[in-house]
Amino acid sequence: MASRRDYYRDPEAPEANSLVPGGSALIVDDNGAILMQRRSDSGNWSFPGGTMEIGETLEQCVIRETKEETGLDIEITGLLGIYTDPDHVMAYADGEVRQEFNITFYGRATGGAIRVSAESTEVAFLTPAQLQTLPVHETVRLRLRHHADQRSEPHLG
Hints:
The protein has 3 helices and 12 strands. By secondary structure, the protein is α/β, with parallel strands linked by helices. The radius of gyration is 15 Å and the shape is globular.
């Protein structure tokens, strides 16, 4: 059983009781494949990322979390968007129900080697076509669409 359940535009969703700043990294290789991890808490494929710790910037958080979850060193190269939809909540086994608060950065791999962590069961660069058939939450699919659209301005919402 998953320790996290995502609700999106679901009238049965529990009410949020937490808001935690977090970020993720959208890393694309030279062939257009996207760095994804299969989350151990939900089973969904997602970008690497996580929540801020006191004493770090959000960019430092995303660099740290990407290294912890995928084994890769990255640098931040841009901003895909800010995602704070109150209709997306994540319910955790401990009773926390967190409203989405994610800033997704573009990044570039600079070193390291791909590996899984306690937070991931698989890590791979996947093509958009491969991602069509895999379990990916709708809010991550939205970010993938924003990336595919090659937007000139970051998403704000």
